[in-house]
Amino acid sequence: MQIHLDRSLIDKNIKFIAHDLGLNINHQIPSEPYLKYDEKGLSFIKDPNNPREYIHIDYLKGRAGWRLNRSNHESNLKKALGKNQKKLHIFDATGGLLLDTMIFLSLGHKVTAIEQSKILFYLVKDALNRAESKLSFIKNLDFRFGNSIDLYKTIERPIDIIYLDPMYPILKKNQKKSLEIETIRFLLKEEKIEGNDQDMIKKFLEYDHKKIILKRPLKSEIYSNINYQVKGKTTRFDIYL
Ligand SMILES: C[S@@+](CC[C@H](N)C(=O)[O-])C[C@H]1O[C@@H](n2cnc3c(N)ncnc32)[C@H](O)[C@@H]1O
């Protein structure tokens, strides 16, 4: 894989990212999957011939911006967090695009989020850098690259909630979101990251915890003894206390 960028845009930051990812910077458009850095920021292009297969995160507009603007309507997520008005410290063990974490932050909570894909980590970091002057709550985020199963032990306590949103199969109804998930799967394969979601859930249930929120497709099997559920139209939150 390579990073494609316009000669005029070379800066220290993109050189650092290329070095850390072990990628070459190329000024020609590659014919294989690549990272692109342009005036919009960093993007991942999965298929240069299919403009729909890409990841570019923008917390200020589009789907993420829209969801953030109406975070008060996230009644199920709020219910899952609990009625208590207290500011929580949430450990998001499956960071992904940080869409859920951004909702937690916008509701006034503090979040430590972990992502295991280094490419996704840099895509998110770039989006956070572009948004932080407009979204002041980003200051309450500690975002790290790594495996959350290992990092959990090193995080400052107290942690009020562990949030788990493992990947699940494509839903035909939601192709746009699924394409992103498929692209994340592709990145994990490219980075040779293996992991079993069931094992991860099991590990966190064994760790000391006050409360675990596990996001699942509405009709999926219950993993183990839950305390209660918050159900939405297509997803549900299983709560373990
Ligand atoms: C379905 S996505 C999460 C989406 C996220 N909730 C959001 O709102 O954008 C799952 C993510 O968890 C990450 N992941 C899975 N297991 C992990 C682990 N043990 N440590 C860190 N990240 C992990 C995957 O790499 C993937 O990006």
TrEMBL record:
GO molecular function: rRNA (guanine-N2-)-methyltransferase activity
CDD domains reported for this sequence: AdoMet_MTases
Gene3D superfamilies attached to this UniProt entry: Vaccinia Virus protein VP39 (3.40.50.150)
InterPro entries named among the record's database cross-references: 16SrRNA_methylTrfase_J, SAM-dependent_MTases_sf
Pfam families (alphabetical): SAM_MT
UniProt name for this protein: Ribosomal RNA small subunit methyltransferase J
Lineage of producing organism: Bacteria, Pseudomonadati, Pseudomonadota, Gammaproteobacteria, SAR86 cluster
